[in-house]
Amino acid sequence: MPISQPSSRRLQFAYPPRGILLVGSVLIYLVVGAVGHDPWKGDDAVHIGVIKSMLETGDWLVPQLAGEVFTDYPPLYFWIGKLTALSLGGLLPLHDAARLASVLCGGVLFAALGASAHTLLGVREGESIGATAVMIGLGTLGFLVPFHEAQPMLAVLAALSLACYGLAKAIETPWYGGLLFGAGLGLTHLAGGFNNLLYAAPLALLLPLVSPAWRERNIVLALLGGLLVAAAIAIAHSLLLLAQDPGAQALWLDHELDDLAPKPDVDTRLSKLASTIPWFAWPALPLACWSLWAERRNLQAPAVMLPLMAFLLALLNIVISGGTRDALLLPLVPPLILLATCRVGGMRRGLANAFDWFGMMSMTLFMFLVWVGYLAMASGWPPRLARQVVRLEPGFELQFSLAPLALGLAFTACWLALILVGTRSASRGAVHWSVGTITFWALAMILWMPWIDYGRSYRMVSDSLAAALGEHPAGCIAARDLGETQRASFYYFSGIVTQREIVPNALPCRLLLAQQTGRDAEAPPGDTWRKVWEDRRRGDRNEMYRLYVRDQHTPIRN
Question: Which of 144, 272, 429, 519 is a Cys-bridge partner for 356, taking CB atoms 3.0 to 4.6 Å apart?
Answer without folding.
Answer: 429
